[in-house]
Design brief:
The protein is mainly beta. It is built from five helices and 25 strands. Strand 19 and strand 20 form a beta hairpin.
C-alpha cells in the first residue's frame, strides 16, 4: 500500500455513516478561477511526470515534483518506479527527471525499482539546497513455510508491506540543470519503539514532511490497521501524530491529531502548520526550535495556538505561495469518496480546490484572509493535492499537482 491506501474505504464508510466534513468557517468564495488557460511545458525525452502528488518551489522559481504511480497497486502491472522531476518555471525550461547519484561509490539498488516518492520538502540555506523525500519502499512478505498452506497450494503471493523511509539529497549543478546527490536514508525499523505508545499505536506511515535543518525534519504520521480504521471511521478518534527526527532518532512530539497530512513551517522555524483531512482544519503550533543550521534543543515541543482555521473539505498539502513566505496555498478534496474511487481506477473525476491563507509577520495565519483561488469539478485537473505559485514581469503561473493525472497543470494566470 502507498500513503493514502484505505481512504477509499474510509471515505465511503464516512459517507454511509453520515460523517462528512464540517463546512468552512469563513472562506472567501467571491472570486476564483474554475478553469484556467493551461500552459504546457515541454517534456524531456523519456519524461513521465504522472502522479505529481507533491511539489516544492525554490526562491528562483524552480519546482521539484514528486512523481509516483498511485493507481498501480490495484492491478497486476508491476509498479513503475517513481522519480523527482525538475521544471524551471522562471525560465520556462523542459520538465526533466533528475539524475540521482550516491555520495558513496554505488547507488542503493532500491532506487532503480523501489523508489516511490511521496511528500517532499526543500531546505535552502544560503546557496546550498537539500531535498527531503518520503520514499514508500515495498517489501514482499515471505511465503509460509508450510507447503500445504493454501497460499502455497494456489500459488498466491504472500503480500507486501510498505515501509516509510526518508531520503535526504543534496541538490548540485548538473550541466545546465541539477542533480540529486543521495546523502542518507532514514529507515522506519522500530522508529517509534521507545517512549510512551502513541494513541494510534507504534505504526509508522508518513504522509508529508518539512525540513528544519540539514538532517532534521518534522513529519505527519498516520498509523494503519483494522483497529485504527475503526477508530477513525466510526468514532472519529484522532490517532495521527507528528514526529520529529533530530538527525539520529525519531520522537513523537504531538499525538492525537485528526489524520494530519500536509505540513510546513515558518522561515524562523517558530511556527509549524499542519492540515487535517477529516475536519479540514489548518492548525498552527508554536515550536521551541532555532533557525535552520543552529543547534536545536534536545526536547522539541509543539504548543497549539488557537484559533484553528476551518477551511472545509479534506485538506492535503501545504505550500508557500512565494519565496517571501507571506501566504500558504492549501489543497483540498471536496469529496474523499470520489478521491478513493478514482484511486481504485473507477471512471469518476474528483473535484479540486486550492485555497490561500495569508501569514502575518508574527507567523500566525490571518483568519479573515482565507480565500479560494482555484476550484474545478475535476474536468481540468482531478483530485488536486498541491499547488505552487510563481510571478515575475513576464509570467504568472499557478502550478497544480495531482496523484492521478498524467502530468501537473500549469495555469497561465496572466491570461485572466
Amino acid at each position: 500500500m502507498t500513503q493514502l491506501m484505505g481512504l477509499m474505504v474510509l471515505g465511503l464508510s464516512m459517507t454511509a455513516c453520515g460523517f462528512v466534513p464540517r463546512g468552512a468557517d469563513a472562506v472567501d468564495q467571491s472570486w476564483y478561477i474554475n478553469k484556467c488557460a493551461p500552459h504546457t511545458p515541454e517534456l524531456a525525452k523519456g519524461a513521465d511526470p504522472r502522479g505529481s502528488e507533491d511539489i516544492v518551489m525554490d526562491a528562483m522559481g524552480v519546482i521539484y515534483i514528486s512523481s509516483s504511480d498511485y493507481r498501480i497497486e490495484y492491478n497486476s502491472v508491476p509498479r513503475r518506479a517513481g522519480a523527482i522531476y525538475r521544471y524551471d518555471v522562471a525560465g520556462d525550461g523542459e520538465v526533466k527527471a533528475m539524475r540521482i547519484r550516491s555520495e558513496s561509490s554505488r547507488l542503493p539498488s532500491y532506487f532503480e525499482k523501489n523508489f516511490a516518492p511521496h511528500g517532499i520538502s526543500l531546505l535552502e540555506m544560503g546557496d546550498a539546497k537539500r531535498l527531503f523525500v518520503i520514499n514508500h519502499r515495498i517489501r514482499a512478505l515471505p511465503r509460509p513455510a508450510d507447503k500445504e498452506n493454501l497460499a502455497n497450494l494456489l500459488n498466491l503471493p504472500a503480500g507486501e508491506v510498505t515501509q516509510s523511509f526518508v531520503e535526504i539529497f543534496r541538490i548540485e549543478k548538473d550541466g545546465d540543470g541539477e542533480m540529486l546527490v543521495h546523502e542518507k536514508s532514514v529507515g522506519d525499523r522500530n522508529a517509534l519503539a521507545k517512549g510512551t505508545e502513541p494513541r494510534g499505536g507504534r505504526g509508522f506511515v508518513l504522509h508529508d514532511l518539512v525540513a528544519v535543518g540539514p538532517q532534521q525534519f518534522f513529519a505527519t504520521n498516520n498509523p494503519r490497521g483494522v483497529q485504527q480504521a475503526i477508530d477513525v471511521t466510526f468514532f472519529r478518534n484522532p490517532i495521527g501524530n507528528i514526529v520529529y527526527y533530530d538527525g539520529a532518532s525519531y520522537q513523537v512530539v504531538k499525538d492525537r491529531i485528526d489524520f494530519a497530512d500536509g505540513i510546513n513551517i515558518s522561515p524562523d522555524n517558530r511556527h509549524l502548520y499542519t492540515a487535517t483531512v477529516l475536519d479540514g482544519d489548518l492548525v498552527t503550533y508554536k515550536t521551541n526550535l532555532n533557525p535552520a543550521g543552529e543547534t536545536q534543543p534536545k526536547e522539541v515541543t509543539l504548543d497549539e495556538v488557537t484559533p484553528r482555521i476551518r477551511l472545509g473539505g479534506h485538506l492535503d498539502n501545504l505550500e508557500w505561495s512565494n519565496g517571501r513566505r507571506e501566504a500558504i496555498l492549501v489543497a483540498s478534496h471536496p469529496s474523499i469518496a470520489a478521491f478513493g474511487l478514482q484511486r481504485a481506477q473507477a471512471p469518476v473525476k474528483a473535484a479540486s480546490r486550492i485555497m490561500q491563507v495569508s501569514i502575518n509577520k508574527d507567523g500566525m495565519p490571518d483568519v479573515k484572509s482565507a480565500k479560494i483561488v482555484y476550484w474545478n469539478d475535476g474536468s481540468q485537473v482531478s483530485a488536486a493535492s498541491v499547488a505552487a505559485y510563481y510571478k515575475d514581469k513576464k509570467r504568472e503561473r499557478l502550478i497544480v499537482g495531482s496523484p492521478f493525472e498524467d502530468r501537473f497543470l500549469a495555469c497561465k494566470l496572466d491570461a485572466h
